[in-house]
Amino acid sequence: MQKHSDFAEFTEITPSAPIDKARHGWRAKCLQRLIRIDLPVPRTVALPCDTVRAIAAGQMPDTARLIGLFGPEPLMSVRPSPEDPEWGGPGTVLNVGMNAARHAALTETHGAEAADALYLAFVQAYAIHVARLDPDMFAEAPGPGALRAALRAYEDETDTPFPEDPARQLSEVLRSMARAWEGTTARLLREAKGAPAEAALGLVVQDMVLAIAPGLSGSGAIQFVDSVTGAAMVSGRVHLQSLKGAGEKPGETLFLTKDPRGDSLEDRAPEVVEALIRHGAACRARLREEMRIEFALESGELWIIDATRTPRSSRAGVKIAVVLAEDGIISREDALLRVEPRALSELLHHQVDPRAPRDRVARGIAASPGAATGRIVFTSAAAQAAAARGEASILVRRETTPEDIRGMHAAHAVLTERGGMTSHAAVIARGLGLPCIVGASDIRIDLRERRLNAPNGRSFREGDVITVDGSNGEILAGAAEMLAPALDGGFRTLLDWADEVRDIGVRANADTPDDARTARDFAAEGIGLCRTEHMFFEEDRLTVMREMIFADTGPDRRVALERLLPMQRADFIALFDIMAGQPVCIRLFDPPLHEFLPHDREEMRELAEALDRPLSEVTRRVEALSEFNPMLGMRGVRLGITVPEIYDMQARAIFEATVEASRRGAPVVPEIMIPLVSAKREVELVKTRVDAVAAAVRNETGADFTYRLGVMVETPRAALRAGEIAQHAAFLSFGTNDLTQMTYGLSRDDAGRFMGTYVNQGVYSEDPFHILDIDGVGELLNIGAARGRAARDDLTLSVCGEHGGNPESIEFCRALGFDYVSCSPFRVPVARLAAAHFALRDRKQV
Amino acid sequence: MQKHSDFAEFTEITPSAPIDKARHGWRAKCLQRLIRIDLPVPRTVALPCDTVRAIAAGQMPDTARLIGLFGPEPLMSVRPSPEDPEWGGPGTVLNVGMNAARHAALTETHGAEAADALYLAFVQAYAIHVARLDPDMFAEAPGPGALRAALRAYEDETDTPFPEDPARQLSEVLRSMARAWEGTTARLLREAKGAPAEAALGLVVQDMVLAIAPGLSGSGAIQFVDSVTGAAMVSGRVHLQSLKGAGEKPGETLFLTKDPRGDSLEDRAPEVVEALIRHGAACRARLREEMRIEFALESGELWIIDATRTPRSSRAGVKIAVVLAEDGIISREDALLRVEPRALSELLHHQVDPRAPRDRVARGIAASPGAATGRIVFTSAAAQAAAARGEASILVRRETTPEDIRGMHAAHAVLTERGGMTSHAAVIARGLGLPCIVGASDIRIDLRERRLNAPNGRSFREGDVITVDGSNGEILAGAAEMLAPALDGGFRTLLDWADEVRDIGVRANADTPDDARTARDFAAEGIGLCRTEHMFFEEDRLTVMREMIFADTGPDRRVALERLLPMQRADFIALFDIMAGQPVCIRLFDPPLHEFLPHDREEMRELAEALDRPLSEVTRRVEALSEFNPMLGMRGVRLGITVPEIYDMQARAIFEATVEASRRGAPVVPEIMIPLVSAKREVELVKTRVDAVAAAVRNETGADFTYRLGVMVETPRAALRAGEIAQHAAFLSFGTNDLTQMTYGLSRDDAGRFMGTYVNQGVYSEDPFHILDIDGVGELLNIGAARGRAARDDLTLSVCGEHGGNPESIEFCRALGFDYVSCSPFRVPVARLAAAHFALRDRKQV
Questions:
Q1: Is the separation of the CB atoms in A102 and A210 below 8 Å?
Q2: Percentage of chain B exceeding pLDDT 70
Q3: SS3 B184
Q4: Cystine design at A460: which of A452, B81, B426, B583 (Cβ 3.0–4.6 Å)?
Q5: What is the rounded (10 degree) CA torsion for B528, B532, B534, B539?
Q6: Strand pairing of B365-368 and B436-438?
Q7: Of A627, A628, A681, which has the smallest distance from its Cβ to B762's Cβ?
């Protein structure tokens, strides 16, 4: 290690000292700011990262000189000061400088009890953190003889007396903290929080305030907003350690401000509280942040020891940022950048109230955020039955398989004994926006007894009520108190600001009027994907669908479809009305027909009866329509071309609804999207028929309307051939779910079984169904967008897969010049904020 | 229509006349060649295409002047002369110029019967082809009163007398032929044979030889090779029409050369036959082709009317081309170019002997070439049972579904009532090299009675023997006489010549020793794809596979796999021995494990017994392994990474076999190919383990060997990421079957249901599983090859999908600089010849 001459080994923090966050860490910088605004901070010395690195390598600074800065016989604290407070660091060590002489002096001035307590605390911390002795041997509470026992234990274990020299004490403390930073565990922990490999540690050494003293003494913390809601309110406690005989109760804990629950510091010393509030306001204004302030009182004198960013929930984070901006303390741009987009998704779900009591039964991996309460069910069928009764259920399985998807749709949350973040249950639940815990390995499901057995002998039957907290992985007994989604003013204000700066559109995927209302509520700029097939699964429609499937000729199919027409029309009118003139992009029928047919013998028998056809015919038809790989089968535009009556009916329903909704409200220009295209000619054929239907409806109704026909790019071939496809398409919308499946040759429904292994072994850096695969699928987006635009200047480009709401995808699509992304309604706020972030980031770079 | 002044309206064909094939058609050119070699060709006049086009547009040349070229009162024939004889054209019209006066004169010179016959033939042809009257009214045979009746019918129908003026007759004949060429049917027919849209027609007008005459008169044709085998032999007939009373029997048909079956022209007039043979030899030498010569005799004088390319089977085509080259008449290159590569595939299959009697029952669409005889079975199970008994069976189905695939494997041919060229049956049968007829709509399958009912009341039971001729679509009763595959000297000589000129390698896909022997027999340069999974379906191995699947831990799986190791090793030793040092590329295990498990309850029960496990466990495992989209599921390298013991065992088997086979024969450098790769890391992980196994085997055996590890590019992502994948791969082999499925999002097993509609409607110009999709899949090949090569100069590139043997794919791969194509053994000859064609074509262009 070279000796550096170009930096001070340590620097006393004064208003004008050269303290730099990158070099001395956030805490040193923060303390300097407090000093600059004249807060009463005890003398503090900062050790820059270079010094700490040198210490770890064995080169100690001049600690005697350092101690000298604090005057004669000081007691000191040493605290970590990395560049970012999130990166952690070794624990604080207090009372460095304590030794027999200092102990004797303190016994004189403060009494034996106080002197013992201070010395014991130091010996324990030193033994554990510096000498690395067994913590169990140094766990004794203060009391008669405890100090002596600790000193003897230290000598016995180390064969040396406890060090008396404060310089040596400080050197050893610094060395142990510097080395702890370089340990593997510490490194992994901070890297998990985003620290770079070269992240370094600064340290601050501060003069101790002796909070065990005569008169009003003690220590505490104060904050000025509620950590859960972000609302303005003073809170905190103070722990008094005024010495006995000074008219105080030792070890008393007080509220800070007047409180019906008990005594407060305000009652005892209103001027101190007033000073704290004044200091808080100064911090907020000058540090441009809500700060939590640590303070100490020594014989009535107030010292500010430290200040940290007030801890906050996502909800509070939004509120704080918005209020700081509204108060003119930060800019709106800063407010936007202070909120992590993904944090917003928490606000949209129910949360267990963090202030309410929790009866925790077990925990697992928090796989999909939000919380839900419901009755335990162990099978998908039971979940569906519960849904039919209007009851909330929690689907509890060893692990889920593709057959459980209907059950997952029906349940309010999912809990599995096995699996990881990319297990089937986790992947699907995130897609559905369903709270989910996986890998809850402490629980045991006994299917025979229909019981969920938890640790400590607790056991739940099917039908018992539990709460699943998918945000933190906790399983709670009974119905926990919930916080409703926090869509209050702060949330909406922030998103309005986001809309002012973002430069890529955000639409929602919405299939039902409910979805559409949510989309509008979240200010989506239209519907980017309306999947029409869900509309056919409702009981009455399903019967007609099946008649259609069993019809042998085009005309017979047409008769059945005529009966679906008014229902479809009503669906679209409802959507158009809700969206009030905003674009609605309707995807034509996509799934294979066999999805509408029964699969077990009993259901087939019922269907045969309903259709008045022989059972053999029903089973034959079901068999004939079954497919080896339905994902790659007769669906989408393939069905549209071979059974064109379906698209004809849908086009008619869309156009008739357009006429009807336009008469009542804003004019509607519907967007019609063709799924699963792989060749230009498919688009031509569908366009010809849809145009003909449009002409017929115009003719019949006498109303004029326009519409836009586009293509959902889901096959690699459609991306490669986008140039010629765009000749017939007003827009291309990339369906990244299917495109990912086909680019990887990977069925989403089947990938769960090995995705965990794959991500763990780094075969895929991320689950590509979760995070858009920029390298592969992204290249197809790039190729498709470039070729499509080259063929047609005014081509609208978008992404409508579930990736649409992910910040990574938005960044990528924005870079490609896409017009909008479309995502599930609950992801719209995240997408709006993320889009604003990227726009702001670009502005800063310019 | 403009009058062209830059061409003669017609030209008499003389040795020096400016006759040009492109302008006057092949027949005019051919006749000029015959004239140049002094053959006795009657006077002939050629009308160029421009003239014929003008005629169709209403602008008639000077027919009176044209007739004048033939001297006074000629009789003329008019024949079509398009540029290529394959393009067809209107039928020949004879005896133009016949009228009452000429009839009277002929009655004088040749007698009434001859005059009537000549006149009647012309009236009938004129009425039908020129006046477009009902052919049924002009069908009467020559005889008393027939001529008069025909003339009266003509007058009644047209209200005009039959034209007497030869110039008008000729004009009308020319006009009708010119217009017929432009009809839609004629255009579609010739375009189906490859004619361009602008293909034009020339015509030749020739002086009639009056083959009804005193003395030796008549007409016939002679050819000098056998049309089926191509062997040298004179054959043909002459139909004599010597007039009665001249000592001849009228209407006699003779052999040409001495023949035990009857009289011959050689007996009657040896000098004529000698002249014909002389003329034939001259033709062959000067026209550089085997020609069939049409001739006429008028009172003993020999005239050569026309000559056409001798009709020939594919087999004869090969023989003729090779012998012409061996005789020095054409070059080897020309011989190669004269054989269409696809024609070779016919030679590799059994064919019904065209000379043998055929009891034709019905016909359908010839969907996959070759013929087979066997017993009728109506179910796949019955086909499998027959195969188990060693009996040949013909699988007869309404249409096949994916469940029939095992039955198709077991049957010797497939016959379906429904479907077209791209139906499931057709597509699969072509893949399997199985004779197949589809769309045999005349037959009715009665499954209840287990009967095949054919037209004319014929009926066959299950077990009855029939023959399916997949080359021409005929269903024959009983066992037809067959020609064995024609792999004689000509075939091998031609392919040897092909190997001398081609510049892209050809390997075979071969899974079994039988396949490998066929591959070597067809001179494949190694095995490009050896699928190892077939090796696990054999009875004894299947049991062990299932034990492996039911093992719960890696070590347990390893125990089961240890028992498969010696079998796999023996498989590979056999292949290495047969291929004698040529490269063998072994694909590691690919299919999903559930393919090895039973699917019905009874089989599961048996398996539970065999494994000594509860049935519930078996059913649970079967369910757990089942997949929604097996094509996109847990297979290929995904299995290799999650259950690495399988690849470990296979690698060991390969390396131990390498050591063993190298000890006995040529040194083996095995190629190991990883299937279904989508990310670089998959290759790294497998490579690490395979390298470790190689090191272990080297260590245990003390033998040194090398091997090459490569990747099968089957997912679009692997093609896109080929640059980084190639860093760890010695070769990339594109599996175009799966790559097509994923690029289109189209399951081959499920596409049959709509592929017919799609190809008919031009949605896809071709079935992409049949003809490589250059635009989409081809671009991925291009991207993958370019990126792979850029990363690694010495990268070997190839295609191993079923497209590998198609000339279109070979052309494409050659253009991309691929090292080899690999195809089914039976496609190897086609590929070798096609590759030679492309090399020769390039040479000519240079």
A1: no
A2: 98
A3: helix
A4: A452
A5: 150
A6: antiparallel
A7: A681
DSSP A671: E
Measured CA to CA, the distance from residue A756 to residue A439 in angstroms comes to: 12
Distance CA B232, CA B230 (A): 6
CA angle B553, B557, B560 (to 5 degrees): 150
- Interface confidence (ipTM) of the complex: 0.81
B277 vs chain A: nearest CA distance in angstroms?
Answer: 57
Query: Distance between CA atoms of A330 and A320, rounded to whole angstroms?
Result: 11
Pair A682, A670: CB distance under 8 Å: no
Angle formed at CA A627 by CA A625 and CA A629, multiple of 5 degrees = 155
CB A686 within 8 A of CB A643: no
Residue B259 dihedral angles phi and psi, to the nearest 5°: -150, 130
Number of CB atoms found within 10 A of residue B335's CB: 23
Highest mean pLDDT out of A709-723, A815-829, B507-521, B556-570: A709-723
- A-B contacts (CB, under 8 Å): 172
Min Cα–Cα distance to chain B from A406, Å: 14
Whether A23 shows a pLDDT value over 90: the answer reads yes
Contacts of A641 in chain B (CB under 8 A): 754, 757-758, 761, 763
A645, two tokens: 């009556």
Residue B248 has pLDDT above 80, yes or no: no
Q: Which of B716, B742, B750 sits opposite A633 (nearest CB)?
A: B750
Number of C-beta neighbours around residue A175 at 10 A:
16
- With 0-12 / 13-18 / 19 or more C-beta atoms within 10 angstroms meaning exposed / middle / buried, residue B457 is exposed
| pLDDT, position A2 | 40
Q: Where are the alpha helices (DSSP H) in A447-593?
A: 489-501, 513-521, 539-550, 554-579
Give mean pLDDT, residues A633-660: 96
Q: Which of A440, A649, A429, A430 lies closest to A554, judged by CA?
A: A649
Identify which of A357, A478, A341, A449 has the alpha carbon closest to the alpha carbon of residue A821.
A341
The answer to whether the Cβ–Cβ distance between B715 and A743 falls below 8 Å is yes
Query: Tens digit of pLDDT for each residue in A378-410?
Result: 998 899 889 888 899 999 999 887 668 778 888
The reply to whether A424 belongs to the active site is: yes
Nearest to A166 by CA among A94, A99, A120: A99
Alpha helices in B129-262 (DSSP H): 146-158, 166-181, 184-192
Buried b (16+ CB within 10 A) or exposed e, B528-548: bbbbbbebbeeeebebbbbbb
pLDDT tens-digit map of A620-644:
888 888 888 888 999 999 999 999 9
Enumerate the β-bridge partners of residue A708.
A671
Contact in structure between B569 and B578 (CB atoms under 8 Å)? no
Lowest pLDDT segment from A570-579, A779-788, B49-58, B803-812: B803-812
- Per-chain mean pLDDT for chain B: 91
| Residue in the block written with tokens 């790659």 | A632
Between chains, do B745 and A624 touch, taking CB under 8 Å as contact? no
Chain A residue with CA closest to B750: the answer is A633
Q: How many CB atoms lie within 10 A of CB A630?
A: 20
What three-state secondary structure class fits B804?
Answer: helix
Q: Which of B629, B757, B764 sits opposite A629 (nearest CB)?
A: B629
pLDDT attached to residue B435: 93
